[in-house]
Amino acid sequence: MAVTIPAPSTTAVVPGAHVEPVPELAPGRLLAGRYQMLERLGEGGMGVVWRARSLGLDMEVAIKVIHPAARIPNARERLLREARVAARVVHPAAARVLDFGVAEGEIPFLVMEHIQGRALSTLLREDGPLSPVAAVRLLLPVLGALDEAHRHGIVHRDVKPGNILLAEERGRVMPKLIDFGIAGLSPSPWASKLAFYPPLYGTPRTMAPEQARGGSDADPRVDIWGACLVLHQALGGAPADIGRDGAEHERLGRPAVLATEPELWAILARGLEISPANRWPTARALGASLARWGLVRGITADSAGSALTEAWIDG
């Protein structure tokens, strides 16, 4: 059964962007002459997601038709550039970006790997919080994907349970982080040769504090915040509370399940520091700390079966 990608109730859009309805699509319709639309999967602030078939490759794909709200100056060029860079992010826990195009009416669309499986947000809503061990094992592959993206100068900017799909591969759970193709390019030293653009969007209740303030200096540490917030929510913690002006975050309390896990709470709390300078500096540093925590407790592999020592300690 195809996954339904959850649509967040609110999404931040660049001020001044003109909001128009997404062009009407229907099963059977051709998009850009080469993609046959099969099934509407979901809709969010960024656009509508469809399951479709690539006529050229004869394979199913997921297509996100971008809302005209994103049509700010140079949006088409921005999305094309970001999609090209995102296509170079090759990691088992990152949903591949396969193509980019412009549909009738000058509406950009993004073609991604089609993934079958529940979103982490759905799992948490339907099944409840995870144990510390299960949550850490699930997050580590995602951190690996973020580490690879940051090496290419890509900041995801919207890491949240709804953007992590849980695919089954060879009897194991492989989390897949989606929406890399609509992520922002980083202004950090990782991307010194890439042009920087301000962020197009993000989800307010999961934004890092510096994103909520509307700054254009977001770097990979916003993804450290996002990944740690995912872990916090997976353990039963409440979502962040953003003040009316979007500038104040309530400090997130310790999930009850971590009352007997002070070491894990210390790792998590550092990633949720209000100041980016006080967070883990990289996804690899955070992942290595979580891997060491797991190894002490006898965990030898993440949810996808990758050995922790090889992936995070010796690598």
TrEMBL record:
Gene Ontology molecular-function annotations: ATP binding; protein serine/threonine kinase activity
InterPro entries: Kinase-like_dom_sf (IPR011009), Prot_kinase_dom (IPR000719), Protein_kinase_ATP_BS (IPR017441), Ser/Thr_kinase_AS (IPR008271)
PROSITE patterns recorded: PROTEIN_KINASE_ATP, PROTEIN_KINASE_DOM, PROTEIN_KINASE_ST
A Pfam family it matches: Pkinase
Domain of life: Bacteria
All residue ranges annotated as the Protein kinase domain in the record: 35-291
Entry keyword annotation includes Kinase: yes
Binding site residues for ATP: K64
CDD domains: STKc_PknB_like
Keywords noted in UniProt: ATP-binding, Kinase, Nucleotide-binding, Transferase
UniProt xrefs under PANTHER family: MITOGEN-ACTIVATED PROTEIN KINASE KINASE KINASE 20-RELATED, SERINE_THREONINE-PROTEIN KINASE NEKL-3
Protein name: Protein kinase domain-containing protein
Species of provenance: Chondromyces apiculatus DSM 436
Native organism taxonomy: Bacteria, Pseudomonadati, Myxococcota, Polyangia, Polyangiales
